[in-house]
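Hi! If you just cloned this repository, the fastest way to understand the data is to look at a raw example. We've pasted two of them here, unedited. The first protein comes first, obviously.
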Amino acid sequence: MNEPAPDLLHLGAADISRLLPPAAAADAVEAALRGGLDPEDCPPRTQVTVPAGQLLLMPATAGGHAGVKIAGVAPANPARGLPRITGGYLLLDGRTLVPLAFLDGAALTALRTPAVSAVALRQLAAPDTRHAVIFGAGPQAYGHLEAALAERPLTRVTVVSRRTEHAERLAAHARALGPHARTGTSDDVAGADLVLCCTTAREPLFDGRLVPDHATVIAVGSHEPDARETDTALVRRSAVYVEARAAARREAGDLLVPETEGAVGPDHIRGTLAELITGRTGPDAGRPQLFKSVGMAWEDLAVAAAVHRAATTGAGGET
């Protein structure tokens, strides 16, 4: 008897936000790694230059699912009132490759990237982390604020952005969620417990010498080998962690630029996210902890599968 093909679910931005809160998305990422997924085996991102910017293709398979994200990066879109990140995600049954769901790609990315950062936060940030400095005021900054609040007892938030009105808007949003929040400058990293870099910058955002030894820095803004949000001084003095060494060697400009300067070697990476959560490595006390994320296809798959599970069974979580 033939198996009936399931109806294809269409899950928009509102559905994704409703179905999977930040902590549950982080749980899905962590569960994938605890379940034995090896990010080093994840296919590399395919990047094609198009007139509007970049077209990215990101396939992955794990557990009972496969999937692919087609994402557009259109730098001119915000000036048109459109999102910089566009696209969609097709989730497939891993056994039959029958399509199960089509998800809003920008909303999935806005949930997935903070979820990965939250997993790193769980392992690296001090339990009493109180003051977060956020660089950027776009969708990723909002997502990282909410993810950090779900993981640590923040009481102060400082927003640093090139556009004052956007920084003020994010600070007001942070205040509505509980912490005291204000706008600030890059020098505010000197009093930070947590620094979240969520920008499109191609040059360092702050002086890495100012970051306290106890602080955790998370940089998610770029996946290009010549773009970075953190400077050589910070990389040299930090314990560095990544999603996968292979992906970092291809795309993590925050680490590759200092290497080309001769400031650090290719062995400067202390560990990966999987090594952190399985206990094969841990935080290195006495210096900043730096997690550099480039974004990987397995992360989209883990979160997309959790969203689909929540939509069909009412339960998010493990892939």
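Ok, and the second one:
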Amino acid sequence: MYDRRSADLPDFRGLAAFDAVLAAGSVSAAATALGWSHPTVDHHLKRLEQQAGTKLLERGPRGSVPTAAGTVFAPRARQLLEGGRRAFAELDAWLDDERRLVRFGIFPTLGALVVPGILSRAEREQLSLELTLDECERLGRQLEQGRLDAAVLFQASDLPTPLSPEITTTLLFAEPLFLAVPREHPLATAERRQPVREFSELRDDRWAFGASGGDTLDEATREHCRRAGFEASTGMRSDDYPAILGMIAAGQLVAVVPASVASWHDDAVAFVPIDPATLTREVVLATREEPPAGLRAAITEALADLHSPTSAT
């Protein structure tokens, strides 16, 4: 094992140079991105490798790639950089108005409904929220990289979002799911209004799936199709529910949608409930560390308003 002195801590400039090379693909491109000279980037990379006690980059005529050791080192290096940036950002937020900065993400379809309520409650809790609206796969990556402190994600009930052990998830609520099908589809007939338990009658349909490709609800849907003896045929990739419902209304697609979307009115689309024992959508709060109590309270209260019988659908 390499004998490294505890005081031999990495230089943040070396970490920044290393991370920039990985992102840009070469030392010269990293120098341009950082606004440093090529020799400056070289100097800090060499010093970082001396501290690491091993080679972190393989340089070639077509650019630079991480060594096996560099690949192991890269995620932690990025987290250290993000931690340094966060330290100053949190200090700036506190110096500005003595509020605690929290970098918070949420997926767009739910965010559009609850973000105003979360922001107003966070204000009362002396929190300054730096908000990111994005798809769950990208939010998960940002959590892993230390670029977010907390995020609201969704996942299939039997297929949790894959996250590292450093990330803790807490169930916020489980949402029923529906099959959105054209009005003339066999599943849409009045006598077939019992919850769907298996997908065998959808083998000839084309499906709408999410755009990101890493949606656990999509993966669970595909798995239920396989259990029914067929592979789901992809007809569209989109996270735009109005566009998806438009294609369903035109008789082109079917899709699994949450109850919040099934509440939308469209005479040309039928929403057939899926048996909760078969599939539900779980909405979870994912955090790198224990979030401020005020953030959890703000999210919980905003969700309570959303699910209140008097709230707008």
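That's it. A detail worth noticing about the second one: The chain has a mean pLDDT of 85.
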